[in-house]
Structures
1.
Amino acid sequence: MAFHLNDPVTALKNVGGKREKLYEKLGVRTVGNLLRFYPRSYVDYTSPKLAAECVPGEPAVIEAKVLKKLTPAPIRKNMVLYKLLLTDGLSNVMLTIFNNEYAYYDMKVGETYLFHGKFSTMGGNYQLTLSSFIRAEDGEVMRPVYNLTEGLSNGMVVNNVKEAVANWGRLLEDILPQEVAARHSLMPFEEAVRTIHFPSGKDAYDRARYRLAFEELFLLSMSLLLLKGRDKGSTEVQIKDPDMGPFYASLPFELTGAQKRAIGEILSDMSGQVPMNRLLQGDVGSGKTMVAAAGCFAAFKGGFQSAIMAPTEILASQHEATLKKTLEPLEMKVCLLTGSLTKKQKDALRAEIAAGTYDVVVGTHALVQKDTVFQRLGFIVTDEQHRFGVRQRGELVKKGERPHHLVMSATPIPRTLALIVYGDLDISVLDELPKGRQKVETFTVHSDKRKRALGFIKKELEAGHQGYIVCPLIEDSDSELMAAVRYEKIIQTNYFPEYKVALLHGRLKSDEKDQIMNAFKEGKIHLLVSTTVVEVGVDVPNATIMMIENAERFGLSQLHQLRGRVGRGNAQSYCILVSDNEGEENRRRLQVMKETSDGFVIAKEDLKLRGAGDFFGDRQHGLPQLGIADLLEDSALFRTAQGEAKALLERDPGLEQPEQMRLRLYMDEIFGNNDSGLN
Ligand code: ADP
Ligand code: MG
């Protein structure tokens, strides 16, 4: 029989249609998939403990001799309790086995075994509830523990994997270049896979994991490099040494060092032949808009139009206002194109955009529609906030002749991660806040302290400041909307009769939203009760206090974004997180919010809590998946692997040498043959 890694799992013993379905649930269809179905953890039999050293309530491995087998005791229908008395040489331990007849009858009095289970104490006596055991002479092993699904036991998977390793293992070929493997003393792929399933000990495990993680990160780096290196063509938009003096002179403040550096990077890109593709990452309040404005000014100096796409109307109109204030004194014309204009208004505006009347066009999705045509589009900004897909960005780019493109993101993530998620972009980071900003003081309270919190808000309003109260609201649920409406009424009449309170939510018409936002900006509304529509970008420096109801319903990054709406001026600002949820995870999240205001740290915590898949959605789509490497934990290894991938591409840009054939085939597969840029 010829073996193939694509053989279905049913090629294995004891795997029929039923088990095939169970495996499918775990994403395992072929024997090759099963070989790469790495254990979730291990039972480590290599360092057993004495019962006296074990921690009650925790899993433990104890080496002990069977002194006596007690008579099985039926405790319920279909439930038999088996007990054995053990000694580890120092103390006695009562071993309890539930419903595992086989284990009980297999164990012999006088023999020594390694027992793994949950350790506890009862009236001064040691107890162990059995999970698994091995004979002492089989010792020095780590037993794999797999992710399972109902109906599929760990033992079944272990047996299937054993057979797969024995008969299919030799088909696992090394894809990593020989010399790279040699330089880092990597074990062969086949050995690594075998070892990761059945390590003989901790050292073997470490070496196997290193080998596998190295390969994953190497392949990921390689695809990112190819993605980035793809021919982007050259652009007509080359703006050499624009005179930025008037722009800097007109600003009411000194730019931060980080802003200057980012602007420098952007101007340098814009003077070149290759269209810019750059990510501007910065924490909330770091002043990304001014950096974008500098790019618009440079484009204008070069005779080009700019377009700025924002994810919501509120944000688009705010950008328009900021840019008008900054750029119109410099003789630039700024307009706003959104879906809420009438057809007639849109047509008129589009005609002017096509004629080149406007230098900067700010808008929402309406910008990418077919009938928006530019006269000379040279610079594009997308204010991403995780809301635009790669495709929409692409559509806007097509509106110009290879315009320069800046992506702004307010969810700062660690650099290594940014490199992966935005693999096709260069990165500028605003890692500095404008001077005078103070840390937003953050409290967490139970809802029974709401009254006091409202009193605190009142003090801020009395001092002439403004505030937000955020209610989590599922935007399409009528009952929740009603609750928010009622909430706002109560707040207005019972607590703040002498102030103006207003409600802002996503189902208002956009001109209504604009009216409310403008009134808030002008200070005519003192307290804004709002759903998460204030989350992105809203900038009202006089707002100094925010209270967030049901804080447990928000993700960490979202809480950080929300909190970023205050602390934008010079006055001390506050954030009150209201939550009655006592869960461990929630407590930890709120603690993080209290302790840090660093968006990078918060994003990292968010990632740990939610897992990378959830955090990024499908941004990574198409790139090699990581099975064992961890982007957060393995960042040093990632740099090493990346260095090797880079060096290899420098030596052999097309991966043409015969020994790179497997690697090349792999890359062709990832990119769909013709698109890898390797041809
Ligand atoms: P974000 O990065 O969150 O989008 P914004 O661009 O909205 O930040 O800027 C936040 C606030 O800081 C705005 O009111 C803006 O005018 C102000 N700002 C930007 N740069 C500076 C600076 N260098 N010094 C002082 N204030 C600044
Ligand atoms: Mg912003």
2.
Amino acid sequence: METSTQVPTRRPIVTKSPVDAARAYAARVTRNLFIGGAWVSPHGEAFIDVINPDTEERLATVSAADAEDVDRAVRAARAAFEHPSWSSITPHQRTNYLLKIADLIATHADELAAISSLEMGMPFLMSRFTTNSMVDVFRYYAGWPTKMFGKTNPTDTGSFSYTVREPLGVVGAIIPWNGPILYACWKIATALATGNTVVLKPAEQAPLTCLRFAEILQEAGLPDGVVNVVTGVGEVAGAALVEHPAVAKITFTGSTAVGRQIMAAASRTLKKVSLELGGKSPVVVFPDADLDRAVATLLLGFTGNSGQACTAPTRVLVHESIYDEVAERLVKGASELKLGSPFEETTQLGPLVSRERFERVTGYISRGRTEGARVLSGGDRAGSRGYFVQPTVFGGVKDDMTIAREEIFGPVGALMRFSDESDAVLRGNDTEYGLAASIWTKDTGRAHRVARQLRAGIVWLNTVFEIDPVAPFGGYKQSGLGRELGPESIDDFTQIKTVVLRY
Ligand code: NAP
Ligand code: MG
């Protein structure tokens, strides 16, 4: 295996716009993997074509790492974990790395955002907003190294007992394509703040943002091997990471089906797992809701990122007294949404990420039709090039229909009527998922009462999608295990040691 110690050129690219910078990056990206602080050639000869979902053209080709590549990355991460340049630094030095990364994300936000938009189709303005909000994520975690305390335990006078909070070791991070920079940052920032090292496996549909991010981490001066990026397919590279005995923890975001496989495979080495999985999030709209705000927000809720959001509010439960009005307004709003290239300023919906996803989503729409739901708006492909699906509103949806039960991950909302508060709670909770929920009412008593009864990891009152690094995020029921963000994420990335001294 050849090791190239040469870093791809990082001369500032003189460009006219972020999309040019992103295209220039796609053109220069190599098939090398980022291991031990160097861009190294892969062991095997398997590759992945990265497709632009807007045009269906090939953007770049990256490597599909095999188990040997993953092993090499894990060994590099383990060596970095033990190396004094990472294990013996002061908390303040760790903080400085995180702050430096935050600054570099801010500097390169437009380019990172444009690379994501190119490879997975998110409208650029949304992608830029998401990328910029990662600056706050790194700054939030930059505060943690100096604030992770142990405790003094109660003992007799002849002994002294205390706890220390320690990192786990190598963390394997496996992420989906629907927000490559977001999931990479959540996982890497937490791992670095807590003193772990990382092997990141990006999604095969969206590896370029993560590869560019690796260059940025290198620019931040992180010691070699602290973060490694191994592109590849889940069944090979992802599975190898999960099986590897030297990986202490897997932090995974993706589908519930793959989450189950990961948990089963991780049991063989008893590694820790955090799982952020799918959702089928209910929205409850009460008669006293501010309908202007509710309709505008919900529309963006289930169509934003073309519905490819784990917390998308897709099961829209509307009180029967306002059902017709809400349906009418949602249909009008949906028909006015603008589909287009992620880089058009007016675009509200980009394409779905891939042909496979396009076929799944259109499959769900036909299933909705055959099971008797009514398409009130949309329901078809848009245009003839790119993976565009019209924002789709289904009416008359019954609780047991497939489109009310399964995560579609496309711009599809299912409207249902409810009669009273307890009916709304019962039906809202009638799902194997429990990631998010949204309640619309001006009655604050009712808002909090219903929030307490809905079984979801985050409940939004008169809003959606508000996720802040200060507060924990994660799923109830089959939407996941563990929490990201907030103080709780620190627990998930550390372990506690008790030290006892007998005088
Ligand atoms: P996915 O198929 O589960 O893939 C997620 C990641 O896991 C990818 O990197 C994938 O590699 C990898 N993978 C696949 N099989 C694997 C295996 N056997 N072992 C180890 N890794 C494996 O999910 P997706 O379709 O990309 O993403 C959409 C799903 O993610 C939705 O269900 C959505 O709800 C969920 N999601 C959840 C959250 C959350 O925070 N709760 C956030 C976003 C998305 P490949 O790229 O090669 O498939
Ligand atoms: Mg997959």
